[in-house]
Each structure stands twice: as C-alpha cells, then as structure tokens.
C-alpha cells in the first residue's frame, strides 16, 4: 500500500481504554482521583514553599520547581486521557499529537535535569556549607531551574521533528491513551532505524549521564557525612538528602524500562506508561511531606493557624 504523508489536517485515532468497555466507569473514577491527588499534592507543596519563609531556600525552591514539572507533564496527558472515556472515537490532528508528544518529552527530560541539579544543591550544602549561600544564590537557582526547562525542550525537539516526517500506510490508529512517540513508531511504514539509533544513543546518555552525576554527588555527600563526629549531626545531614534520594529512586524505577528496550516491545504496554506518568508525580508530594521534617513542621503550623 502506498505510504501517505500526514499533514496538519490529518486525524489520528487514539484508542485509549476503549478495548475495556466493561471497566470504563471504574477506570475513569480511578484516573480522575489520581489526577486530582497529583494536582492537590503538588499544589500543596508549591503553596507551602511560597507561604513559609523558613522554606525560602534553594532546596525548597527546586522542590517547588519539581512539583511544577510534575503538574505540567501529567496535565499534558491525563485530562485528554479522561476525555477518552466520553468520546468513543477520539481523533486528534497531527499538530495536536506532535504538540502533546513534544510537551511530554520535554517535561520528562527536564525532570531528569532538575533531579541532577537538586543533587548538586545537596552536595554544595553538605560538602561546602560555608560557601553555600554564595554558590547557590537566588540568581543561580533561577538560571538552573530555567536551564532544566530549556534543556528539556532542546532534547524533545529533534524527536518531534523526526516523527513529524513519518509516513503511514493505511491505519492512523494508535493503541495508546496519548500521542506517545513509540506508539506512533509502531504504525509508521517509514524506516525508524535512524530514530531508534538516536533513542538508544541519546536516551541512555541522558538517563545514565544524570544517574552518574547524581551518584557522584551522593558519593561525596556520604563521604562528608561519615566524617561528621556527632551521630545527631550525621543523621541531620543525611535527612536533608533522604527525600530527594527517594524521589530519584522512584522516578528512575518508573521510567527506566519504558523507552530503553527493542522496538518489538515499544509502545505495547499502557500499564508501563501509566507507571511513570502517575506514580512518580503522585509519590513526590507524599515523600516530601512524610520524610522531610521542615515540610511537616510547616504543614503543622499552617494547620494550627487555620
């Protein structure tokens, strides 16, 4: 069959969870509840940081930025996914599809960069405390946060350009609940060899590069903590890193197996996609609320005032 070049007026049909008609009401209720929890939890983090002067530090500035990224990339996907439950055949234009894919990839990449920046912040705080204020000034923090978003956009752009040139033979239906790059790769009749090479070369580079930098930071952090004589001092130093370290583990665990795998396995698991779209943004506010003493104290004070 002759390949057809998609243009901005071509529609793509997103299957969503229409293959589970007997579970539509239950799935809608569960996903809506999770989305509302993600929004409320991350907005609570942002509001707590903004309203409490004790949390006006680089560490909590980056925590608020992490919450903003989580809100953004879940909002790119979940509202549209919820609409699938009311629209039997949800068609989107190629432009809308590419915009959703680009936004999601950009925010996911930005989260990798921001988690690395947060590890560096903890490294400076524990290994170079006397110069922490001058190194992590407000201007530097703003530039680092903005840089995370910019790098995310720059990483997503080549993938979006590559996918925009795909041709499709017949079916424009993707068996997914959003415009995922790997789902589009499965229905194209254009050779995806080059973009697969790019994925396998660049994807692991971003993931492993971020992981190596975070690991280096924590090796130095642990080395400094071990040298602290007082047990209480050691625990206090480590407790400032515990939340971030837990968030890193959850994020890497939820996303690592999604894209770094052969084409034959790509895009075939909606469950694996839900894992990194929902679990990490849902867990982050819980982790910071439960594991971080400053946050718990700030929330307690806010509750007592109200």
Give the arrangement of secondary structure elements.
Layout: E1 4-5, E2 11-14, H1 24-51, H2 58-83, E3 90-93, H3 94-127, H4 132-135, H5 138-164, E4 167-168, E5 173-174, H6 181-187, H7 193-226, H8 231-259, H9 270-291, H10 293-305
Parallel strand pairs: 2-5
Antiparallel strand pairs: 1-4, 2-3
Helix pairs in contact: 1-2, 1-9, 2-3, 2-9, 3-5, 3-7, 3-8, 7-8, 8-9, 9-10
Describe the structure.
The structure is a single chain. The longest helix has 34 residues, at 94-127. The N and C termini lie far apart (66 Å). This protein has helices at 24-51, 58-83, 94-127, 132-135, 138-164, 181-187, 193-226, 231-259, 270-291, 293-305; strands spanning 4-5, 11-14, 90-93, 167-168, 173-174. Helix 3 packs parallel to helix 7 (193-226), helix 8 (231-259) packs antiparallel against helix 9 (270-291) and helix 9 (270-291) crosses helix 10. With 306 residues, the protein is mainly alpha-helical. The chain has ten helices and five strands, in the order ββααβαααββααααα. Helix content is 73%, strand content 5%.
State the main characteristics:
306 residues; mainly alpha; Rhopdopsin 7-helix transmembrane proteins; three-stranded mixed sheet; two-stranded antiparallel ribbon; 5 strands
What's the short story on this structure?
This protein is mainly α and 306 residues long.
At the fourth CATH level, what is the homologous superfamily? Rhodopsin 7-helix transmembrane proteins
Shape: globular
Number of domains: 1
Mean pLDDT: 82
- Give the percentage of residues in beta strands: under 5%
**How far apart lie the N and C ends?**
66 Å
Strand segment count: 5
CATH architecture field = Up-down Bundle
Instruction: Assign a percent range to the helix content.
Output: over 70%
Largest sheet, strands/sense/barrel: 3 strands, mixed
Low-confidence stretches: 1-9, 263-268
- Spatial order of strands in the largest sheet: 3-2-5
The radius of gyration over CA amounts to 21 Å
| Helix count from the secondary structure assignment | 10
Topology order in helix (H) and strand (E) letters: EEHHEHHHEEHHHHH
Broad structural category: mainly alpha
